[in-house]
Amino acid sequence: MTQPLHDLPQPIVDAEIDDVPPPHPPAFNPVLLVAGMILVGLNLRPALSSVAPILGALRADTGLGATAAGLLTTLPVLCLGLAAPLAPRMARRWGAERTAFGILLLLAAGLLLRTVLGPSVLFVGTAIAGASIGIIGVLLPGIVKRDFPHHPGTMTGLYTMALCLGAAMAAGATEPLRLAFDSRWQPALAFWAIPAVIAALAWLPQLRRADHGHHRQGYTVTGLWRDPLAWQVTIYMGLQSSLAYCVFGWLPSILVDRGLTPVQAGWVMSVSVLLQLITALGGPWAATRARDQRGAIAVMLVLTWAGLLGCLFAPLSQLWPWAIVLGLGQGGTFSIALTLIVLRARDPHVAAHLSGMSQGVGYTLAALGPFAVGVIHDLSGSWAPLGVFFTILSVAALIAGLGAGRKRYVGARTIELPPAGPSGS
């Protein structure tokens, strides 16, 4: 039965709820864990941001139309959302550490697969990469809640900074890589499998934690899907992500049509994403020190909305300031969304399930954004109507964010199950 929402702080009186983070296993090393999380974060966006800068060359080589290209930019986000709910189940069975390691290798395989055997396999590899990112992304908030319960904003900001840096690197380097490989897009995209393999190797020390039988006791979480606050977190996550993936998927194409070269457009997006590093760390830090997160959410969404309209309509001579505003806004909206998952959950198990819900449903919703951009452009023959589309998304995200930013816990319960094996989550 769903518990009512409670203002913070309030003790839990139900004996079935685990309110105390489990102890660290003997192999716990915070330095290695932070380094591993940063390297993992670097790999959670190149699969998404590497395609847009070379989309024109890819379409020319494969013959993809605008709708198919829109599907290509939408597919990884959709698979990300569909696969996200699998993460808590996989972590319960194999442990969060082993799951993350295996999925990093699967991510590398998907990134390589999308560069071989033609357009059909391009879509298959893209789907595998998106699903892999969805599973790993769900695991990280639970790990933060479990291992760094007193520093949720700082730790979320650190790996979100890494995530933004990875996105910026892929956005800025993929087109130069294509030119360096004799104008071939396949090796330019395949290159991004290398960081994924490096991250998997760096994650190997964490596998010892599963060997020590961390979290042998099984748990289940009830009441989450009926909780209004959980849905506000989820909708905010989805709508702000929709805006982000519209940028990842289409901003270079928009800027090229406005008169920039593909390399220039890629650099504009790269710099904009790189500037997300500032608010990726600063946004959660400020949000966790305020009375609640509503003010920070409102500021970041206004910056995002203004930056989007500036990139659409401002003279090209004024493009860079608006790209900077866009980057600052989107870095904060996303990092605060991840921080809300940690802050709105009472314990690591609720955090893991809220992460799966908000990212699973949220990213499935977000996938509609880049697809809608392609459809709107095809129907209108212009990018101008996107101003209305982006405004609607921004206002809806603000409404959900003002609810999600209240200082409360979701009304979900963690219930002990009989021991299920040596490596539960």
Question: Which key phrases capture this entry?
Answer:
Growth Hormone, Chain: A; two-stranded antiparallel sheet; disordered N terminus; two-stranded antiparallel ribbon; 3% strand; single chain; disordered C terminus; 425 residues; mainly alpha
Q: Could you explain the architecture of this structure?
A:
It is a single chain. The chain is mainly α and 425 residues long. The chain has one domain: Growth Hormone, Chain: A. The chain contains 19 helices and 4 strands. The chain has helices at residues 30-42, 46-49, 55-62, 66-83, 86-94, 96-113, 119-147, 152-180, 185-190, 193-203, 207-211, 228-257, 262-274, 276-287, 294-313, 319-343, 348-366, 368-380, 386-404, and strands at 6-7, 218-222, 408-409, 413-417. Strands 1-3 form a two-stranded antiparallel sheet. It has a two-stranded antiparallel sheet with strand order 2-4. The two termini are 24 Å apart. The model is unreliable at 1-24 and 420-425 (pLDDT under 50).
